[in-house]
Amino acid sequence: MYLKRLKDLREDIDEKQAKIATILGITRQQYSLYETGKRDIPAEYIKRLAIFYNTSTDYILELTDKTKPYD
Closest by alpha carbon to 63, among 51, 38, 48, 46? Predict the structure, then answer.
């Protein structure tokens, strides 16, 4: 499921949940609920994360294994 991708992307850049939460304008606790699957992450947040990680929403959602965003 895409939750592992969210965590992997964050860990690949050695970032803490608190920094990602700040980018999204939410608390670290709220972001943790998204990353652990206890809450569904809104599409707007997936879009913001794709921009931040320079990838596509399809990659985050595991619809593709290509990490680069579309042209």
Answer: 46
Q: Span 44-71, mean pLDDT? A: 93
Q: Please tell me the distance from the alpha carbon of residue 19 to that of residue 66, in angstroms, as a whole number.
A: 25
The CATH number of domain 2-60 is 1.10.260.40: yes
**Rounded CA gap, 65 and 18, in Å?**
26
Q: What are the structural domain ranges in the chain?
A: 2-60
Question: Helix/strand/coil (H, E, C) string of 45-66?
Answer: HHHHHHHHHCCCHHHHCCCCCC
- Is the pLDDT confidence value at 47 over 90? yes
**Total-model pTM:** 0.90
